[in-house]
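Milestone 3.1: sequence recovery, worked example.
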């Protein structure tokens, strides 16, 4: 049970890490990477995709370190990795349609998530954007976009 709680803790912790990184790092001193995500993409990849590798490093490191005894490090890394999979499926596949799959949003949560992220992309500059989260929709956006 403790292992499952560790996975879940690190999964949910990553939403805060992602929000903080998005607001203060990606829209801060690493804008030169993230800017590619706020422009029309030419080709399959964008410079912003390098952030995925940056987040994968601590996950892989923890999984490797903890794999001898399957201790807390293994399950922490697994929680981070599962967040990465969820992020890819929700952000890249569902919201941005980088893979033409999961096109229709029937559930209120997914409608709100897609619209909230599109709201974030209405700003094409480093400053002035809002809604920096990835998987969790703040209540005010859920009320605004989660209908019909």
């Amino acid at each position: 049970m403790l292992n499952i709680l560790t996975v879940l803790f690190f999964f949910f912790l990553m939403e805060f890490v992602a929000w903080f990184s998005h607001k203060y790092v990606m829209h801060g001193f690493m804008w030169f990477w993230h800017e590619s995500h706020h422009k029309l993409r030419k080709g399959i990849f964008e410079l912003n995709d390098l952030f995925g590798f940056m987040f994968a490093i601590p996950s892989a490191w923890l999984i490797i370190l903890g794999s001898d005894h399957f201790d807390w490090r293994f399950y922490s890394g697994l929680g981070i990795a599962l967040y990465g999979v969820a992020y890819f499926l929700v952000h890249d596949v569902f919201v941005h349609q980088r893979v033409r799959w999961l096109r229709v949003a029937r559930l209120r949560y997914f409608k709100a998530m897609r619209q909230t992220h599109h709201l974030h992309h209405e700003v094409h500059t480093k400053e002035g954007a809002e809604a920096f989260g990835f998987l969790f929709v703040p209540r005010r956006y859920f009320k605004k976009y989660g209908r019909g």
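The CA atoms of residues 19 and 133 lie 5 Å apart. The first helix runs from residue 2 to 29.
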